Amino acid sequence: MKKRVGILISGRGSNMMALVEAARADYPAEIAAVISNRPDAPGLAWARAQGLPARAIDHTAFTSREAFDEAVHAALTEFGVDLVALAGFMRIQSAGFVERWKGRQLNIHPALLPLFKGLHPHKQALEAGVKISGCTVHFVTTEADSGPIVAQAAVPVLDTDTPETLAARILPVEHKLYPHALALVASGQARIDGGRVVISARPGAGEALISPQPQGGG
Ligand code: GRF
User: Fold this and answer.
1) CA angle, 135 then 140 then 143, to 5°
2) Is the CB of 15 under 6 A from ligand 1?
3) pLDDT per residue over 161-190, tens digit each?
4) Vertex 211 angle, CA 171 and 151, to 5°
5) pLDDT band at 217 (very low <50, low <70, confident <90, very high)
6) Minimum CA distance residue for ligand 1 atom 1
7) Does the Cβ of 138 fall within 6 Å of ligand 1?
8) CATH number where 176 lies
9) Is residue 95 domain-shared with residue 124, that is, in the same domain?
10) Count of domains forming the chain
């Protein structure tokens, strides 16, 4: 049985698109709903055009965070959602909502957590002078960008990078990582063990990424 995934967005939704595309192939999850807190989110229009169940739940129409979260929860329940995937969803969630979806809600963050949590992660990475950054898919807990890590991908950071060029290098990697991580969770291969995620039946580690790259001959 495929897991039914609800994707929460606020903006352009490129990670949502990557999940939708992945779910069109042989995949352990199907996209049951796309929900945006912003009625004008370009990603929502795209989802509608694809014929996906898409809904705007405008957070400005609610008097409290809890009331908005309650409406999102009701919609997710109505769509029969098993797993929630945050994809550029720019709202902090109430503790009650996070608790209800504990172990069933993922987020993607464009940095190698636990480094550079919160806003402007690309700028934070450049200011720290790291030579490698990347992206992380993790389970959502009440502390932002801090839940158990499902998967990560790394990219080099260049001396000439701006937050924009670094973001542009990481984003296409996000589009590969998120579908991969969601598949691990949806298929039951990734499970939370204390504060970590263990992955069953995985092949060996990949290759090292060295940045800056050694020139031939060393
Ligand atoms: C991505 O960089 C994601 O990692 C971060 O917000 C951005 C959303 O982009 N959480 P998009 O809406 O998926 O294109």
Assistant:
1) 95
2) yes
3) 999 999 999 999 999 999 999 999 999 999
4) 45
5) low
6) 88
7) no
8) 3.40.50.170
9) no
10) 2
Phi, psi at residue 37, to the nearest 5°? Answer: -80, -10
- Residue 149's domain comprises 107-199
What is the C-alpha separation between 158 and 119, in angstroms, rounded? 21
Q: Does 217 map to a domain?
A: no
Q: Does residue 120 sit in the same domain as residue 172?
A: yes
* Same domain, residue pair 80 and 20: yes
Tell me, using a 6 A CB cutoff, whether residue 145 lines ligand 1.
no
Ligand 1 atom index nearest CA of 171:
2
CA distance 24 to 105: 21
Residue 87 CB–ligand 1 contact under 6 Å: yes
- Is 3 a domain residue? yes
Beta partners for residue 100, in sequence order: none
Are 93 and 1 members of one domain?
yes
Q: Tens of pLDDT along 72-85? A: 999 999 999 999 99
Given 82, 101, 120, the domain boundary residue is 101
The residue-averaged pLDDT of 46-63 equals 98
How many Cα atoms are found within 13 Å in the side-chain-facing hemisphere of 23? 23
11 CA: nearest ligand 1 atom? 12
